[in-house]
């Protein structure tokens, strides 16, 4: 059955969830997953933040962005970080921010730049 529907090549990052692959597989579509890039934190983030003031807003576009930056932001801004409003691009990112112990101010209605902008404007 899988051969009848063809085969899909799915280049992805090392942190990608397998939701789409599982769904396609359930429809009898064969998926070849290949990790083509790896997500890695910016090793220079602490240096970049040294002279920065606490922002009013912090927007997270991925769970890995939250994992990589929130502990460092907390180190620099300590308890004042709670004064910044955190926006998540979607529910998965929101969940990760909350798992890290932070409160999410808003979640974009859709995972796109327009919805993030609307979340900022609806303040």
Number of helices, where a helix is a run of at least 4 consecutive DSSP H or I residues: 6
Helix content: 40-55%
- Cα-to-Cα separation, first versus last residue: 51 Å
Strand content: 15-25%
> Order of strands across the biggest sheet?
3-4-5
Outline the low-pLDDT stretches. none
3D shape: elongated
Number of strands: 5
Q: Main sheet? A: 3 strands, parallel
**Strand-and-helix sequence, N→C?**
HEHEHEHEHEH
Radius of gyration: 18 Å
Mean pLDDT level: 87
What structural class do you assign from the helix and strand content?
Answer: alpha/beta
Question: Explain this structure to me?
Answer:
With 123 residues, this protein is an alpha/beta fold. Helices cover 41% and strands 20% of the residues. The chain has six helices and five strands; from the N terminus they run αβαβαβαβαβα. It has helices at 2-5, 19-26, 45-49, 63-77, 91-99, 113-121, and strands spanning 7-13, 30-37, 57-60, 85-88, 106-107. The strands form two sheets. It has a three-stranded parallel sheet with strand order 3-4-5. Strand 1 (7-13), helix 2 and strand 2 (30-37) form a beta-alpha-beta unit. Helix 4 runs parallel beside helix 5.
